[in-house]
From TrEMBL, chain A:
GO molecular function: DNA binding
Coiled-coil blocks: none
SUPFAM superfamilies assigned: Nucleic acid-binding proteins
Subcellular location: Chromosome, Telomere; Nucleus
Major site of localization recorded for this protein: nucleus
InterPro entries: NA-bd_OB-fold (IPR012340), NA-bd_OB_tRNA (IPR004365), RFA2-like (IPR040260)
Alphabetically ordered keywords of this record: Chromosome, DNA-binding, Nucleus, Telomere
Protein name per Swiss-Prot or TrEMBL: CST complex subunit STN1
Automatic annotation (TrEMBL), chain B:
Source species, domain of life: Eukaryota
Gene Ontology terms, MF aspect: single-stranded DNA binding; telomerase inhibitor activity; telomeric DNA binding
Protein name: CST complex subunit TEN1
CC annotations in GO: CST complex
GO BP, one annotated term: negative regulation of telomere maintenance via telomerase
Length: 158, 128
């Protein structure tokens, strides 16, 4: 039976994010063929590219096992997607996204959380939160978490 | 159509950079960590070391990184093997990692590789 992990940000290395395939039974959920279903992921890695547009910031995170494209939307003030929300909430979301975008610079190590999805044949993350890590050991600890969870929880190798 | 993605840089230790190593290849994308032993402002070339191994780093493409001899840095870039068989990493990113636990870093690289290799084998079995 599939183990639902859609409501948590699964810690996966980039190699495994790129191996995710669409679940045949659950919309917006992805599988590694190990029983677990994923829709949200967390990655930590070095920002190696940055492409700013008026609507979104696209950047790539390299965690040593692969590069993952991340998209941080910046169109909260103009998109109809947010039109039903309270105006003060929209302003807050927009301000937060722009602050996060400003912190994304090439060479920094970032922790990215968001929804995983497929765009033009490649997996990418639609960013919910991105923070720049100041702890020089953050990436090491993330790798260790990915290995531990991959073996014991997600059963990537079982 | 898949997006062209930046080549991922494998995390390695300087001890793994020797001529017969699989990482010791022209244009290999790697991530190295070590203490900055020296740096020339004129050439933009620095030297990092870890234990008894060292590597030259070309920092010409790094705009916002201030380098301080004695601090520990992590660089991502492409390896260039010169005609005299000496290697230099042309860095595209760099960051100060003073405070990094190098022993934990080395051990974790090994664990991560085992995890990735086991996953690759499983994938091959599934495809069969």
């Amino acid at each position: 039976m599939d183990r639902p992990l859609q409501d948590t940000h699964a810690k996966l290395v980039a190699r495994d994010i790129h191996r995710l395939t669409q679940s045949p039974t659950e919309a917006n959920s992805f599988s590694l063929g190990c029983g677990a279903l994923f829709s949200r992921v967390e990655t930590v890695g070095t920002i190696v590219s940055r492409d700013m547009t008026p609507k979104f910031l696209k950047f790539e995170v390299d965690d040593g096992t692969g590069c993952v494209t991340c998209v941080l939307w910046l169109n909260q003030l103009t998109s109809s997607y947010f039109s039903r929300r309270d105006p003060s909430t929209i302003l807050l979301l927009s301000s937060t996204a722009r602050k996060q975008a400003a912190a994304v610079r090439i060479g920094a190590v970032a922790r990215v959380r968001g929804r995983v999805g497929s765009y033009r044949g490649a997996m990418q993350i639609t960013v919910t939160v991105v923070v720049v890590e100041r702890d020089p050991n953050a990436e090491i600890l993330h790798w260790l978490e990915c290995v531990r969870l991959g073996r014991s929880c997600y059963r990537i190798q079982s | 159509m898949a997006h062209p993605q930046t080549k991922s840089a494998a995390a390695i230790t300087l001890q793994e950079l020797y001529p017969s190593s699989p990482f010791y290849k022209e244009a290999a994308s790697i991530r190295v960590t070590g203490m900055l032993r020296g740096y020339s402002v004129e050439t933009g070339i620095g030297v990092i070391e870890d234990g008894n191994k060292s590597l030259r780093i070309g920092t010409q493409h790094l705009k916002d990184l201030s380098l301080r001899v004695g601090s520990v840095y992590q660089f991502i870039g492409e390896l260039h093997i010169e005609p005299n068989h000496e290697a230099i990493l042309q860095a595209r990113t760099g960051r100060n990692v003073d405070g990094i636990d190098m022993n934990l870093y080395r051990k974790t690289i090994g664990l991560l590789r085992q995890f990735l290799e086991a996953g690759n084998k499983k994938n091959v079995v599934n495809l069969d």
